[in-house]
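Exam revision sheet. Question 4 asks you to relate a sequence to its structure. Input first:
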Amino acid sequence: MGNKGLATQIQWTSVTRLLCTLVLSSALMACGSGLLQPAVVPEPAPDMFSPLDRPAEQYSAQAGVAGGNDAFAWQVLSVRALLQQGNVAEARDRLNSLRPGASLSQQPVLVLLDAAVLLTELQPGPSLQRLRAIDAQRLAPSARAYLWLLEANIYEQQQQPLQAAQALIARHGLLAGPAQNNNRERIYRLLARVPAAELRRAQSENNSPEANGWFRLMAILNTAEQPAAQRNWQLQSWSRSYPDHAGRAYLPDTQATAQQQAFAPSHIAVMLPLSGRLAEQGDAIRNGILGAGQGQSARVSFFDTQGADMASLYQQAVQSGADFILGPLLKDKVDALLKQDPAMPVLALNQPAYQPELAAFYYFSLSPEGEAADAARRMWDDGHQQPLVFAPANELGRRVAAEFDRQWQAHSGRPAILAYFSDQAGIEQDVRRALNSRPAAAGQVLPVNGEPGLVPEARPADAVFMVTNAAETRFILPYFDFVRDSRAERLPTYVISRSYIPAGEAPMGELAGLRLADMPWMFEGSPQLKEEVLSLWPDANTGWLRLFALGYDARAMISQLPALRQGAPAVPGLTGELTVTPEGVVQRRLQWREYVNGDWLSIGQQIGQQ
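Answer key, structure tokens:
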């Protein structure tokens, strides 16, 4: 009986052990099957807008064990993952749970997520409104890249590929590696759907250089039935203009294409207004071009831009066999020609707001802004330290004053004094106010000759630059003498060609000592040519003569344009000493004269030579 009880006890002990083993095995199996989850190990939060590589539940689990900013970042990642998984309702619930505790700096992130939820719900309009409420420049780079991605997705959902591509172009520089390659490929696919004409119209000074580069390249690639020579020219021009552009990946092999030749045109297409209200101006330039072309073999054809569509006019020039375009004259016409991306060199006779750096496109004008820049250089060379700019309070006056100030700061590192006048009735008060003015930036930290520094407190004006015509100059100058002290020496006063008065008339005492910049042609330059011109057009006024000189110099310098753009020495012209900037803008160094007893007398050597 005792042995039997002992055996029974041993059996129960074995059963108990077996049951414990089975229970432990079941528990381990449950762990392996997910029925019992191990503890979540906290991790540092990645960037909120980094690529998603986990399901939403894992991001949420990390948020549960993190704190502060890390917890917020994990929650943002979980919302994005839910949207990627199509769980829109849960994503919105989780987003709403974040709102009460979000800090001020976290609010823009919530707006971004709001826009993402609305976009997933196929509400692109409200989604775009959310994005418009965000100051993109205050976002971290990754958040800004996410914003541009959302905007691209919105526009693509709205069937607007051009706008979608613009958003991706803005995003591109914020990416790297495969993400950047994918972004570039998407830009290309979007723009490949846009007609060439629309891409040309989209180019604007309001775009980034990267965007304009994409639009110009894709306009070339999307143009059907284009002659091979024209296409090759345009692609080579684009390649030189955009050496580091992302779109270079889509350039066809151009190694076998012909290189652009030096400018020795056999047929020049001249585009000018030859009818309508500007016919007289066009005629003056036309005669200057013909005068400079005497004895030269190149054929010249004239095309009237009055009321003409520039796309059609350009095609007419191409079909005529032209290999160089001179003109057009008006800014809007120049801009329209630029949009055609001409497959031949161009010397435009004006400067539009949008001036892409095309390898064979040049700009030549008689702009007052260019003359103001020359005046700033001259006044700096003359040793002045604090110029006062006195200009009319209109668009032209402010534009010219701003260009003078820009050029002055480039030389001196200090701002000029800018002052404006309105009408004759208030001119005395305007002059008093101007003489008591100081530069707006005096005492502020500004770049000085390229290096940060403190702009010294402004000293009183020691010279005046007046943006005035001849009548305004004669009226205003005596007020400067009166307000200062008529017994004191007059402040050196500089004006540009708008103040020109022909020499030889009765002396005007109020102009004594006035310094004026103008083209050599208006003084004693090229006397034999001027005699011939005046014999043919005895009634020519100064405005007509200036435009004649513009046409003459434009035609005469064609062959020298590439060398001048590469830094060749200035060449003398009727309009001044001519150089060309790397951007293709023709610049003029003017002659400076002083008004003495009714004549304009030389006041020294040319600009830049002392």
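Marking note for examiners. The chain has three domains: 56-246, 267-363, 368-519+590-602.
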